[in-house]
Design goal:
The protein has about 160 residues and is mainly α. It has one domain. It is built from 5 helices and 2 strands; from the N terminus they run αβααβαα. The chain has a two-stranded antiparallel sheet with strand order 1-2. The radius of gyration is 22 Å and the shape is elongated.
């Protein structure tokens, strides 16, 4: 291949990159932070909603105790696990320059963990395990996600108020 061919190949690659760049779903970091909070809140609400239905429609004997157990676990998961994860995500998002890909609220390797957790949740939901015990797990994870989403919202509010 001659020099001219190499230049053509580089030009084609640059043109392709420019054309693909306009389809890049990039957003401002502030938007990415609030979208992260919305995502965490949405999943947390969904999980808690499943659990509440299982415990109280129809009522399960001692459903309040199962609910309380889930809340206690949610506090521990939030404090000992999710706070660190959310803080790492926020630091990573804020460290990026310019606009950020909308899917960048989690590191790419975390998407494998998310897929695994969705699969496990689906398997548990369709298992023969008693719903009141699943409700504890769902409240624990959902509650922890809801609590942790507050950190995203706080960061968003700080970013917006500093920008004004």
């Amino acid at each position: 291949m001659g020099n001219y061919d190499n230049l053509m190949l580089i030009d084609l690659n640059n043109n392709m990159h420019v054309k693909l760049k306009k389809f890049d779903p990039a957003v401002d970091k502030r938007i990415l932070v609030v979208l992260s909070g919305i995502m965490w809140s949405g999943v947390g609400i969904m999980l808690c909603n499943h659990a509440i239905k299982w415990l109280f429609h129809p009522p399960v004997q001692k459903g309040a105790w199962f609910c309380l157990a889930g809340i206690m676990l949610a506090l521990m998961i939030h404090h000992f696990g999710f706070v660190k994860l959310v803080d790492q995500n926020i630091v990573r998002i804020l460290a990026k320059e310019g606009k950020v890909c909308i899917f960048g609220f989690q590191p790419w390797k975390s998407y494998l963990m998310i897929a695994f957790m969705i699969g496990m949740g689906t398997a548990l939901r369709h298992s023969l395990l008693p719903r009141q015990y699943l409700a504890v797990v769902y409240i624990a994870m959902g509650g922890a996600m809801l609590l942790s989403s507050i950190r995203y919202y706080r960061t968003f509010i700080k970013l917006v108020s500093n920008k004004s």
